[in-house]
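Limitations

Structures in this collection are predictions, not experimental determinations, and the ligand pose is part of the prediction. Treat each record accordingly. The example that follows, with alpha-D-galactopyranose as the small molecule, is included so readers can see exactly what is and is not provided: the inputs are given verbatim, and the output is the predicted complex.
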Amino acid sequence: MHPKPLVLAAFQQKFGQPPQFLVRAPGRVNLLGEHVDYNDGLVLPAAIDRATWVAFSAAEGESTLVALDFDQQAVFRLEDLPAKTSPDGAPLPEWARYPAGVAWALAQAGQQICPMRAVFASDVPRGAGLSSSASVEMAFALAWQTLGGWNLPPLERALAGQKAENQYVGVNCGIMDQFASACGVENSLLLLDTRSLAWRSLPLPEGVAIVVADTGVRRKLTSGEYNRRRAACEQAVELLRADLPGIRSLRDVSPQEFNRLAAKLPPEAEKRARHAVEEIARSEVALAALAQGDLVAFGGLMNACHVSLRDLYEVSIDELNVMAEVAQSLPGCYGARLTGAGFGGCTVNLVAQNQAGAFAESLAAGYRLQMGHSPEIYICKASQGAALCS
Ligand code: GLA
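Predicted complex:
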């Protein structure tokens, strides 16, 4: 069942009256610029037509949140937020740290947080590289805003979500996911410069479909791996500064400079930083290709990105490699690669629209033949960012 009627019915049942408000915030898929949003690079995500839905009303004293996807409830007061506990002192469950973390970050930014009763559910699969956590954060950021009666621009809410994830949940993520969930534009790609935070939407090129192929493999406890990769990039910047004193991040290092200095880096930092430097350079070429409508060139760069994530950044797994390779061999496919952090989840495929149906079927069959189970494949619609619904 779709999450919207689910949360509405469950709210009524739990609290004995309909909710005052309903918000929706989408997940995202990323076409290009992977693992560069914490290296000041360019990213090209789109918000997708899968989302977290929150039905909510103002409450007195404490907040009560019901997570239908976990069949659990959490209670906390504003004063419990820093300690991440319920009034009885028990630690908040893992899932509650996203809505609570966003309240904490917004309160720290000086916004008024008013208690709420809420029921939420999502059809963004968890651990699938489609930013289910950012969609929860952005849905609740808007919910807290609605009850608090203030009005932060979407990008500011995204930054509060990133802060919550970095400092409250403990994942050192960049800004891409929260940004895409907060700022999504229908039928459009979103181009964000993660250094300046300047962004604009680009219409999806004519005649193409974005196809998401889910391996069904779920990422588990990978925040350690993610944080390690970010640390390796930061270490590389520190070491490269000996020769390039002006650099602030890998965005400031050209592939030529990197090649000249790479031997000075320890092997792990060298591989990670090479991915970031080359991926940042690739995004610039890819944007030029997109501007000229050259989808073949753009798709080729997506394929190159997959290889780099597999061999240099080492965040791919067999299932993702098979999914990307089968896709790349099919008619109508411009490019295919893993999307998001990696270690499981989905590939993103850019496919000629008139061949997308046949592509999805052949991809499912080809993947099943090699891996023995059926993947979930869907043609995805770029959607609007977080919004209050009527
Ligand atoms: C996760 C993070 C993002 C980004 C991607 C990789 O989704 O939340 O900030 O780093 O991985 O591109």
